[in-house]
Write a structure and sequence with these properties.
alpha+beta, four-stranded antiparallel sheet
Length: 154
């Protein structure tokens, strides 16, 4: 009988360890952030600027980057896939989004609001009160005029 009780305890302990491991794995693969287009989405603020909130969403291999002001107003959003950025019809400045342009504005008021090493987004205030946003492929900008194919060269 004592052997049977020991077996039950070991089995219960093993089950508990497996349950904890499964819970940890589930937490690491939890549902992606949600709320694209919302003032305060359920996502981490990844802004590189204290003047903006930037939220990133990923779905089916497409990365969506949303830029909000400090009051939560959605200004612009872009999607990126395979090194190509495209403007989304989201935000008060959605018509002021340039994509895949090399070297954004050189204005002293231009600020980088997001840069993950692959995609960079800048914001430049305009005289009419709007903001011009530019999203570009960082690798393409670094490689402009160079051979960055990995086949040698400079």
């Amino acid at each position: 009988m004592r052997t049977h009780a020991r077996f039950i305890r070991k089995t219960a302990l093993a089950s508990l360890v497996a349950l904890c491991a499964a819970s940890t794995a589930f937490a690491q693969t939890a549902a992606p952030a949600t709320g694209l287009g919302q003032a305060w989405p359920d996502a981490a603020d990844l802004s590189a600027s204290p003047n903006w909130h930037v939220y990133v969403f990923v779905l089916n291999g497409v990365k969506y980057i949303q830029v909000n002001d400090l009051n939560g107003t959605v200004h612009a959003a872009v999607g990126t896939v395979n090194g190509t950025a495209f403007a989304l019809p989201v935000g008060v400045d959605s018509s002021n989004v340039a994509t895949n342009s090399s070297s954004s504005s050189t204005s002293t008021t231009t600020q980088t609001v997001y840069n993950d090493g692959t995609t960079a987004v800048t914001a430049t205030p305009q005289s009419d009160g709007t903001t011009q946003f530019s999203a570009s492929n960082v690798q393409a900008d670094l490689c402009e005029g160079k051979n960055c194919s990995g086949t040698g060269g400079s």
